[in-house]
Amino acid sequence: MPDSNSRPNTFGQLPPSKWPGERLGLPQTGSGSIGRPGRRLLGFAIDWGIAIGVSSIFFSYDPAANLIIFVILQIAFIPTIGASIGHRLVGLRIISIHGGWVGLWRPLVRTVLLGIALPALVWDSDQRGFHDKIAGTALIRS
What span, in angstroms and rounded, lies between the C-alpha atoms of 51 and 65? Predict the structure, then answer.
């Protein structure tokens, strides 16, 4: 048996996943598997489109209003329906990798980091963006 110092104890020490979500105990395909980039981007585009639509009606397409409305929609819908409107429409939902309800703080942290954009562009072999890693969430197929 190897000594405890040689066993990986952080994600940085683990080998890359064979499929997205393997290290999280998620299936390779089907319901419960990691949401793939196409669905993720389409869900994001729908959410951004909703934010732009609301901003156009009430705030004359103000760029700051676009972002604020997007953030509010994310923070309101993730804890209540388990995903944003766009993600629900494309068959995705957000889970806590620790189990149970995602709570209120996870969507807040995830969305603030998503608003910065850079964390969403940095992915690991489980196809989780840095914003999901920090919040302890995963975007999976419903």
Answer: 8
pLDDT average per 10 residues of sequence, the chain (142 residues): 49 74 91 93 95 96 94 94 96 94 92 79 83 91 94
Angstrom distance (rounded) from CA 135 to CA 9: 19
Cα atoms found within 13 Å of the Cα of residue 123, Cβ hemisphere only: 15
> What letter represents residue 12's amino acid?
G
**pTM of the complete model:** 0.83
User: Rounded CA gap, 99 and 136, in Å?
Assistant: 10
Q: In this structure, what token pair is assigned to residue 129?
A: 């963006």
